Amino acid sequence: MGSGNPKSSVVSAAALLAAAAWSLPGCHRQLPEPSARVLRVVTWNIHGCLTGIDPIVDELRRLDADVICLQEAEADTTHTAGADQAASIARRLGMRHFSAGSALPAGGEQRMAILCKQMLRQPASLHGGTGRVYGVTAIIHWQERALRIVSVHFTSSYRPDPKHVLKTSRARSKEATDLAKRLQQWSGQCIVAGDFNSTPGMPVHDHIAKHLAGLPTPRPTYPSGNPVLAIDHVFCSKGLRVDRPSVGATQVSDHLAVLAKIRLLSEDSEP
User: Which of 149, 195, 198 is nearest to 173 (CA)?
Assistant: First the structure.
């Protein structure tokens, strides 16, 4: 979820303050062939792989995703002994990857990443004017069309301090506003997945839901030992459909992984 643990009570408080804070200004390996018209997408906040990379890789291999969106992958930290976790995971899964993030106070970076079984084109980091990178994006080729993938990690509220909660709620709102503007500017279809630090009904979640389709994550994803908050989500643009997402059970991170099956709707299909 972010730089503090646990944060359940703080996010609950954030839900109450967020409304007041909300202010809107206005791999060579190919994906499965189109017969099934299904793209398996996983989003997972891996919490710096505190239990080690092996169990993370084992769970991702079991989920067998075509696209993986990671949050809180560390690089060049003391904990990682200078390693790049996203690169290590991608290499072990035989996937391409792109990652970017922001500096941690103790050194190194905390990153978001996109992993895919095929080439990632036009990779870029997303900045919303909050002093941190809140997302990464890249384009893949699927079903004979370009498909944009976005992995996000919106600012978290991790201290039970009203000023902190208000400040971080405003930062989340600003990041969501920036993403909404980009969604209007980007051409083609898009999948956005990640740790939104927002549950359904909170302004940030609902604002993104106005621009993209998706089904609510069926059960809470945080904290993994006793989940009470559904803050990890998968959204997609018109012409795509998210089948009911499933939530993993492996507690090797403080978040549970979410798997969504994305289907391409035919021109005569109803969303």
Answer: 198
Determine, yes or no, domain membership for 22.
no
The pLDDT of residue 7 is 55
**What pTM does this model have?**
0.87
Task: State the pLDDT at residue 5.
Answer: 52
Nearest to 88 by CA among 121, 104, 111, 65: 111
For residue 251, is it within any domain?
yes
- Domain tally, the chain: 1
CATH number for the domain including 256?
Answer: 3.60.10.10
- Residue whose C-alpha is closest to residue 150's, from 246, 240, 68, 65: 68
Residue 47 is assigned to a structural domain of this protein: yes
pLDDT of residue 20: 41
- pLDDT, one tens digit per residue, over 96-110 is 999 999 999 999 999
